[in-house]
UniProtKB/TrEMBL annotation:
GO cellular component: plasma membrane
One Pfam family in the UniProt entry: BPD_transp_2
InterPro entries named among the record's database cross-references: ABC_transp_permease
The keyword Cytoplasm appears for this protein: no
Annotated compartments: Cell membrane
Molecular function GO labels: transmembrane transporter activity
Name this protein carries in UniProt: ABC transporter permease
Residues annotated as transmembrane: 27-46, 58-76, 83-104, 110-129, 136-155, 175-196, 225-244, 264-286
Record flagged with keyword Transferase: no
Mode of membrane association: Multi-pass membrane protein
Keyword entries, A-Z: Cell membrane, Membrane, Transmembrane, Transmembrane helix
Length: 329
């Protein structure tokens, strides 16, 4: 027996034990999401918070934020920012509605809305990469221009959409009990995750945000990467505008008001580094859902708008602060 003990001890001593430090910042949004969900489920149990109908309604309300957030993850991962996404969504909803009103059909409405987003995204990308203007200033300027264009196009009047096919596919439809908006969100989440984590493009995005000079020396065309990610946010904001139009059966210049802040909050809350170099698409979608759950819960609790804003802001700050603290330890 002693000889066996000696043999076992010698084998254990020869093993190189490695303990990987857990980066809690990567998981804080999931922990916070579960905690918020449990709290509202208990506090609002009698109000029907946890019913399938209410939960699916949260998904519908957050779908456009999630979809724009997926694209924003790429932008922020490069160390840039886009403040124009909400305005792009508004203008895209109107161009889609106008195309449908002219009788061109659902596909033309989709192309008009997405094409509007791509055009603005291209303008943003060229001004940032070729004119070397900071993204904050460029997108702040285009936010005002695009918003003004949305108001001017129809003189602030809504444009109704009477095409049932368009409304079903791009917003208000359900397949069984599953909202079409949930399906669109899942499709873009999978595409965005694979693109960021499993492709050379995704690695170049993270390299550009992590250290742009080093990325250039490694052969990465950082200007091209930034141009493409701004094209991406324009495209996805345009598609979000199409979804707004399909869900509400109209195009309106008010769609997307304040969405840029919710989108950026969802991205940062999800674990993407504001300085760039670190990004997570799945975290962004969970961050978006968490904001939606908070909004929905506070409304059911009967809080007024000012109280909702204060509590929502406090929860977001605490979640991000705890995540940063865990990452620094």
């Amino acid at each position: 027996m002693p000889s066996k003990d000696i043999e076992i001890n010698s084998q254990l001593n020869g093993v190189k034990w490695q303990f990987k430090k857990i980066d809690w910042r990567s998981y804080i949004v999931y922990i916070a999401f579960v905690c918020v969900l449990i709290y509202f489920s208990i506090a609002l149990n009698s109000e029907g918070f946890l019913t399938a109908e209410n939960l699916l309604n949260i998904v519908r309300q957050t779908a456009m934020i999630s979809i724009m957030g997926i694209a924003m993850t790429f932008v922020i991962s490069t160390g840039e920012i886009d403040l124009s996404v909400g305005s792009i969504a508004a203008l895209s909803s109107l161009t889609a509605a106008l195309a449908l009103q002219a009788g061109f059909g659902a596909i033309s409405g989709l192309l008009a809305g997405v094409g509007t987003g791509i055009a603005v995204g291209l303008a943003n990308g060229l001004l940032i990469t070729k004119a070397a203007i900071p993204s904050f200033l460029v997108t702040l300027g285009t936010m005002g221009i695009v918003k003004g264009a949305a108001m001017w196009t129809t003189k602030t009047a809504p444009v109704p959409i009477l095409d049932p096919t368009f409304n079903f596919i791009f917003g208000s439809g359900d397949i069984g009990v599953i909202p079409i908006l949930l399906i669109w969100t899942l499709i873009f989440t999978v595409i965005g995750h694979i693109l960021l984590k499993k492709t050379a493009f995704g690695r170049q995005v993270l390299a550009t945000g992590g250290n742009e000079s080093a990325a250039k020396f490694s052969g990465v065309k950082t200007w091209k990467i930034k141009l493409l990610v701004f094209l991406g946010t324009g495209l996805m904001a345009g598609f979000a505008g199409v979804l707004y139009a399909g869900r509400m059966h109209a195009g309106r210049y008010t769609f997307g008001d304040g969405d840029e802040l919710s989108v950026i909050a969802a991205v940062i809350l999800g674990g993407t580094a504001l300085a760039g170099g670190v990004g997570t698409v799945i975290g962004t979608v969970i961050g978006s859902l968490m904001i939606g759950v908070i909004n929905n819960g506070l409304i059911i609790m009967g809080l007024d708008v000012s109280q909702q804003m204060m509590i929502r802001g406090l929860i977001i700050i605490l979640a991000v602060a705890f995540g940063k603290k865990s990452a620094d330890q």
